[in-house]
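User: two proteins, same treatment. go.

Assistant:
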Amino acid sequence: MDAPRPGPVIEAPGRLRAAGLRVTRQRLAILDALANLGGHPTADEVAAALGEAGSPLPRASLYHALGAMADAGVLLVADAGPGTARFEVAGDWHHHLVCRACGTIVDVPCATGKRPCLEAVLPGAVVDEAQVVFRGLCPDCAAERAGA
């Protein structure tokens, strides 16, 4: 079962420990930056937020920490199709809608609320994750287009 979205950063040390990761200043700063940024920021956006907060990290350290936390399930890689990877603090399993008009990425709840969400008909395969990327118009762009 996926963990709920974290509230205050106070939960971050427990989330890291529960995932089998050491609690480091860098990981806490990254989780704090992601929580403050919200949405689905890129590594570059996280790096900029860390710099603005006075906690800059070398690019390699940032990518290593993002990868380790994603592998451990503390972060999710927001699959929005080809292009730059986007990250978010792990919470309920969900999919994404990418708006063709404005580029916004919107969370779409999983039909079952947990992984893999969809069943693959592949005899002998073990599927633990399915990611669906919806493409269309976000609610704001759809409303704007309907009113135009």
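Protein 2:
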Amino acid sequence: MRASCVEELQVYQKALIAADAISAITGRFERAGDWELQRQLRAASGRVPAHIAEGFGQKTDRHFAYYLYIARGTTKEIRAHLSVAQLRLYITDAECSTHSERYDEIARMLTGLIRHLEREDRTSRG
């Protein structure tokens, strides 16, 4: 079955949930006066579902995969920001691990979808 809208993609749904979870923990950064890390982490977490959605709207599988590669790279950026937050003691080791594992799962799902799209390589997705 092919998804008729981006909201049907499980990876998109998980990325939205993960972004919401990141937003919930970054309030602590503000109390520490670290608005830049807060801004970067919130922005990066929002970019993952945004890139998936933008890619979904592209005409070809190859173009969709391109945006998924960007989204996958952003999951690595988020993990780096989480590590910084952990080192600065804004989040616990357990929180860092939980959120990192969530983004690892999203990255694996993106990789699977990319491989599928590269095999299909439809020139018209519409």
